[in-house]
């Protein structure tokens, strides 16, 4: 099968297209013939070696941890899914990812793709939406009426976090550049702060929850807008606990753990059209396609999801 792998840490030139053996299912697994996958910041951070202490993979590595496709093979002990099912998932974080024509996935992590979604739309859902879910609900348990600030709302996690927060009944504020302001209002944001013209910490106060997708100065400034007893979840960098305590807030770093029950709850929201995936960019499964997709992701200015179209 065709796959794009890395054999060393480094730049985009490390992404090499190769022909390798198709995987076989271990106990509890299925093989998905992929129609699409997606790019997430963890992909290029791992490729560059930034996360090698946290995730010490052995080379060669197939990056990518979103899958959408059709089940091609099932292990004998898998009973909830069968060959031909349309499925999507965020697989376990291993060195055998999804930049490939086929991938092995633990069956308990799968959900059926709703009929109203294409494979390309479905591929943009698992990692980002489950990340938003675990920040909003597992870490913070946001409630109707809560004031929620979501940084970088036009990104992959941001677009889904806005929609999930609105489904919950929260009041959603988000930050974006000028050309994305109207787009984020169309997703349901109650207030969009144009960071090119406004400072969010001058515009806001008494916020219940902040989703920090950027880290650094943005994370530090976010404490000023939180009310006493507020909460901040970061997916960019672990917050300093002394700083959080000084501001009287709960702060923590959220590292996504795939959960099949959450994936299936997300599928139901998609089926009911309460949330929708945002496909912003598409590239082919090829050496140059993956390199170009990484380059775009590294700018931090992609709108919605970057999809790898394996079809």
From TrEMBL:
Keywords: Oxidoreductase. Residues 10-308 form the Enoyl reductase (ER) domain. InterPro entries: ADH-like_N, ER, GroES-like_sf, NAD(P)-bd_dom_sf, Quin_OxRdtase/zeta-crystal_CS, YIM1/Zinc_Alcohol_DH_Fams. PANTHER family: ALCOHOL DEHYDROGENASE RELATED, RETICULON-4-INTERACTING PROTEIN 1, MITOCHONDRIAL. This is NADPH:quinone reductase-like Zn-dependent oxidoreductase.
């Amino acid at each position: 099968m065709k796959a794009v792998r890395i054999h060393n840490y480094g730049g985009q030139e490390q992404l090499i297209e190769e022909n390798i053996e198709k995987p076989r299912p271990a106990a509890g697994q299925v093989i998905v013939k992929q129609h699409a996958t997606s790019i997430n910041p963890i992909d290029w951070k791992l490729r560059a070696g930034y996360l090698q202490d946290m995730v010490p993979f052995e080379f060669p590595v197939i990056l990518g941890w979103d899958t959408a496709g059709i089940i091609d093979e099932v292990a004998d002990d898998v009973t909830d899914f069968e060959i031909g099912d349309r499925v999507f998932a965020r697989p376990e974080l291993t060195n055998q990812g999804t930049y490939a024509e086929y991938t092995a996935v633990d069956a308990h992590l799968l959900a059926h793709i709703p009929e109203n979604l294409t494979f390309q739309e479905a591929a943009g859902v698992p990692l980002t939406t489950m990340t938003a879910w675990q920040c909003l609900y597992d870490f913070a348990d946001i409630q109707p009426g809560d004031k929620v600030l979501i940084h970088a709302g036009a990104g992959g996690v941001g677009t889904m976090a806005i929609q999930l927060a609105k489904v919950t009944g929260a009041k959603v504020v988000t930050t974006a550049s000028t050309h994305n302001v109207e787009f984020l209002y169309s997703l349901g944001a109650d207030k969009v702060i144009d960071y090119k013209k406004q400072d969010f910490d001058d515009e806001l106060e008494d916020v219940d929850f902040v989703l920090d997708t950027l880290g650094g100065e943005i994370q530090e400034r976010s404490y000023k807008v939180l009310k006493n007893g507020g909460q901040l979840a970061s997916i960019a960098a672990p917050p300093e606990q002394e700083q959080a305590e000084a501001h009287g807030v709960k702060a923590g770093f959220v590292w996504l753990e795939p959960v099949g029950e959450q994936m299936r709850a997300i599928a139901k929201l998609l089926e009911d059209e309460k949330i929708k995936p945002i496909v912003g960019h598409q590239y082919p499964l090829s050496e140059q396609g993956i390199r170009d997709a990484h380059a775009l992701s590294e700018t931090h200015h992609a709108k919605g999801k970057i999809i790898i179209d394996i079809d």
